Amino acid sequence: MVVASRANYARIKTAMRAIDDHPDLELQVVAGASLVLERFGNAIDVLEADGFRPDAIVRMIIEGETPTTMAKSTGLGLLELPTVFENLQPDAVVTIADRFETLATAVAAAYMNLPLIHTQGGEVSGSIDESVRHAVTKLAHVHFPATELSRRRVIAMGEDAAHVHNVGCPSIDLVAQADLGDPRSALAELNARGVGAEIDPDKPYLLMMQHPVTTEYGESLDQINETLEGVARLGMQALVFWPNVDAGSDHVAKGMRVFRDRGEAKGFHFFRNLPPELFAKLLAHTACMVGNSSSGLREGAFLGTPVVTVGTRQQNREHARNVLRTGHGADEIADAIREQVRNGRYERDELFGDGTAGLQIAEQLALPLPPAQKQLSYAVEDLLAEVSE
Amino acid sequence: MVVASRANYARIKTAMRAIDDHPDLELQVVAGASLVLERFGNAIDVLEADGFRPDAIVRMIIEGETPTTMAKSTGLGLLELPTVFENLQPDAVVTIADRFETLATAVAAAYMNLPLIHTQGGEVSGSIDESVRHAVTKLAHVHFPATELSRRRVIAMGEDAAHVHNVGCPSIDLVAQADLGDPRSALAELNARGVGAEIDPDKPYLLMMQHPVTTEYGESLDQINETLEGVARLGMQALVFWPNVDAGSDHVAKGMRVFRDRGEAKGFHFFRNLPPELFAKLLAHTACMVGNSSSGLREGAFLGTPVVTVGTRQQNREHARNVLRTGHGADEIADAIREQVRNGRYERDELFGDGTAGLQIAEQLALPLPPAQKQLSYAVEDLLAEVSE
Amino acid sequence: MVVASRANYARIKTAMRAIDDHPDLELQVVAGASLVLERFGNAIDVLEADGFRPDAIVRMIIEGETPTTMAKSTGLGLLELPTVFENLQPDAVVTIADRFETLATAVAAAYMNLPLIHTQGGEVSGSIDESVRHAVTKLAHVHFPATELSRRRVIAMGEDAAHVHNVGCPSIDLVAQADLGDPRSALAELNARGVGAEIDPDKPYLLMMQHPVTTEYGESLDQINETLEGVARLGMQALVFWPNVDAGSDHVAKGMRVFRDRGEAKGFHFFRNLPPELFAKLLAHTACMVGNSSSGLREGAFLGTPVVTVGTRQQNREHARNVLRTGHGADEIADAIREQVRNGRYERDELFGDGTAGLQIAEQLALPLPPAQKQLSYAVEDLLAEVSE
Amino acid sequence: MVVASRANYARIKTAMRAIDDHPDLELQVVAGASLVLERFGNAIDVLEADGFRPDAIVRMIIEGETPTTMAKSTGLGLLELPTVFENLQPDAVVTIADRFETLATAVAAAYMNLPLIHTQGGEVSGSIDESVRHAVTKLAHVHFPATELSRRRVIAMGEDAAHVHNVGCPSIDLVAQADLGDPRSALAELNARGVGAEIDPDKPYLLMMQHPVTTEYGESLDQINETLEGVARLGMQALVFWPNVDAGSDHVAKGMRVFRDRGEAKGFHFFRNLPPELFAKLLAHTACMVGNSSSGLREGAFLGTPVVTVGTRQQNREHARNVLRTGHGADEIADAIREQVRNGRYERDELFGDGTAGLQIAEQLALPLPPAQKQLSYAVEDLLAEVSE
Predict the structure, then answer these.
(1) How far apart are the C-alpha atoms of D240 and B147, rounded to whole Å?
(2) Which of A388, C199, C293, D33 could share a disulfide with C209, CB 3.0–4.6 Å?
(3) What is the pTM of this model?
(4) How far is D362 from chain A (nearest CA, A)?
(5) Which of C56, C57, C79 sits opposite B79 (nearest CB)?
(6) Which CATH number fits the domain that encloses residue B253?
(7) In a domain, C174, yes or no
(8) What average pLDDT does the structure give for chain D?
(9) Taking every annotated instance into account, which residue ranges of this chain make up the domain UDP-N-acetylglucosamine 2-epimerase (chains A, B, C, D) (predicted)?
């Protein structure tokens, strides 16, 4: 189980808990990448507060946050992880979703003949994540996609249907289990965290989370400026998150700092990260979530949160009715937010799971694992004739 | 163009030549991995003798040849290659086939938003190469599979059919262009290369080339012993090649050394590597090729060479009528060789190309390249309904 | 010439200029470590604005800033630099002073049989810099210590006196050449840089620069707090610099941020870095410089700047009369600052050079270099009998 | 305790045993570099057969054996060792002598504030080892030089005399404890090891061990050829060792292989490595040892072995009367061997210790260790005035 970021953690936590609780399974945790960096809020503390002690820590992020350092950091991870796996001798390795460092985990495990378990394969999005996700699928032995469509895509790519299980996304489990009641005391407490304007717990608020798009490196600064301006036009209070470690993060962070230093971030409160349960409560009650984080599509669907998705980062990702797309202009962003605020909450949609993903994953992992040697499955071989025009 | 082994070179040489000759293309060569190691015959000398000067050299092989060092060497390559790409600023990166270090090239290029060109995707084989090949496919932007079936498989995995071209394998070009006439003077000259018994140019000879199977690490020593013994039983002279750098190579090499030191390698002559044209001539005239190298399947099909393929390394790879499969026992190997020697040469089969692969690749690369942002193609989306049972 | 931080650059710039101008010498520049990081003000921009174009960029800082990542970053530098040296083929390599990554440059050059030139050897300080500096001396072939006492120490350590030259410190050249006149317009312009309180150009100001002490990792946060509080007690305006990349920097930076967010940084203006000439002007006119940067001892001696040095980082470093030492308590720090402010400017002291270091370095490098093979010098052999008690 | 080669092991084994046996000390063993490579005889097996189980294995040798890969391998070691130290949490780190990878251990320990213990400092030799050894001295906290002259040199370099202890070399302990009686049965058994001519246990034999000189990279092939030829002229049987991993090893090994394949190695038997006790017995009874290994100078002095030292590798190393130096010509080498064979055994000389080094090291390490913060010692400060001319 290699956990590499706060986002990773939210999407695997209930599976970790279920594995840890399962009589036939033993959990080992490797904490790496931005999870162990102070600059990203040391999300590892949240993990430890939840009772998970990392069996190894992997420091692999080379400073710079350019496409070059993103590749080199993956290389560094791939130098470090084999030693970790040699020491821990796991029976299988779990890797999560599609961040760039995921591929280091996947290659290390596959090359060392360790069965690789992959969650959230088969999704279609944009950014380099798109390629990373499918490459990991081709290295993985057991797949836990989060939707029915994703399950079918993983099989279509040639994976053996017997080892592809649509269990939903563990992040939905968190939301399903969380206390989502009145957020006012939570909001009041937030004033002691992060920096920026005082939050008024009695007023509606926007949530904003925008990450750089690595394939549009160089445009990140403009993009964050437009979104910040669009949000500011609403004149509402806003809870704003710093971006993930990725090529372009420096530009996003800089845009946010400059915007704030210019005094334009009126009513904006800035956070590095929050515990997943607290985040779920904020998501359940926000007037609208804005940006390009997938949590709006995923947990947002289950919670019926009104979401405005900006730009290409989630462009082809499946979503429910709660999501409205826009381009990068401040005007269109502001318009979309207004429409969503006016609409209010949507109906629950179980597109990304019903809240039992973690338990299903643990149960599957307790069954015998497939052999190290993979093969393109026959299901696809049967389709080949039809592909040919 | 990242070339990492003598095998790589044979499978890309005519494309390199065609790119170099094309008025609209400029060729840059990165030489890496075993290509630059004395222990593997410094195949880079062959490349330079052909007039290709490497623009950069990447030293990335960590000693040990275990699954752990195979993963770590890939990591080291992934630390080195981004710097190389940053210096050379290529418009596109070509990576070849499926050896473990190929994935370092693929990840570096994809993360740095450089269009990735992949040759020989879509094949089905065995070993870790199987997973590496398909993972590279999911990172690549333009594909040059070597057979029609492979082309269809790449498309079925979700790649855009507009960028998947069955051009055949450039190694066939070499064979098609080579002077394959009387091998006697070539054989006579071989006595000055390599070590072992004197070669008699007037007698028939076997060719043997057996690499370790990384997913069967630990069994490599037994496997090579059985094959050596099987070959020895024929009592014919044999040209035997040392293995590639891979987890298990040390065991294969050791088995060969011990066999030779015990005096059992009667009539065996050992080589590290040979120029591709010379190898083609030997393949065209051998009484039978034995082992698990794919050249028997590939160039062998075009040349009609009788081939005995041992074990799982090529187990699901497409092949023509010239190939006979066996397990790992010395007896069954000896029987199969006898049968093939008796049969003699087969008819030419253009399964792996007609000898124009290099030219076709250069022509395609001179056309506009697809954008860095990849997407699962619509062709597959249409198939999804049918996959669902 | 490997330049790795803004401090590095200030201490070598005039030598770079003199080498570039010398008819028999060619300058190559490798920019690495914190010099190329946005988080540290991208000091490389200053270097390029001065007309120096880096021939290679080395990204080597692994995030974390713990003793572990400091060691690993040096390892990463040592993986990267040999490739750079192989590409650039320099006749000699210059490395500067004593930051941790300096050792990567020194080891790479020494192992590759490139004559290593080292500036500022033989100084005695504290922190891990102490060991790094002397280890580099033992790998270097030509030494440019900055004081007479340092010259004698380098020789005592067994270096050949013929290759040890006291030229003074190039940072003094900068100060000697700088326009140090009225700082008011410079101060006024500073309001557009950095963040924090408005600077009043007509009032006296303090300069504060405090780096973590790597061998006291864990105490950095307390230490910065005491100094911030000590400075605040003076009630004067203060120009405060963020720390270098080092184990503990995160703690220092955090202390500074928290202090500022608590509203205690009244009259404090924060900077990442400034061009060396501007910094010289500020140093020439400050009421007192506080912290543990060596620039107070070095340029401060030449300029007669009143300096308060806190803690152990400079504890045994040579200094002139302008320096007053204190421990880490806010009270004693405040007292020492008051005493220095009262005293005012000191007389010029040429302890660290007379402003011609850069020219002297270039002239020496144009002479024949010593061979790669080093040897403990005979001068020390003669002393050995006396050492024995 | 980081052990990185078979030579390392022989020079620390008795100290390992004494530490392991000491009631107040706990031994941890890190096995790295060539110690864990099959190509170098997997010396780790000898270590394990002696009852030492490695707590961690570090794979750090990048293939190539050029000065570039030697530097890069050190960098890789410096990426790996901090993780190992973080996991093992040692109270102190012991590093041995002067091979290139030693510096990785030294830097990792020093940067991580772990007291560094260094054996065999203060010696004067040649090759890059010379610089490595003194650089490690400047990073180390406790020193165990092997001779009185070395002790004084370490102190002269500025180390605190209280932490510099002349204990002799642990390799002498092995020799002092070994059964050195009649070698005939040992010689007879050697025929089952290594390759080459049959050894006749009743006849006198030469020992040959020649390593590449890294600062003379490029001349290694010529040098080994001359020595092989010089040895062959004696017409005696010879036990010949393959070289260490170093820049140039490939050339030395190639020279040896070609010499053997040409049939000139008459009476030569080739080994990769031997258990230290067996080697001691061979050294005690050889007619003459030839080459540039330091064991001839060291154990040879204690045993009175006639030794011929070739070239610069040991050129300034202390030695007793048993050593005769020559240049690289086959003629002068043959002459020197003849003279030494004629002379026969020398008197015992305890220059490198009396056989109690291991015990003395363990006893010192059980005492309180010096603090992480080092300082140039006052002993040297007192000498400085005299150094100044």
Answers:
(1) 53
(2) C293
(3) 0.83
(4) 29
(5) C79
(6) 3.40.50.2000
(7) no
(8) 88
(9) 18-365
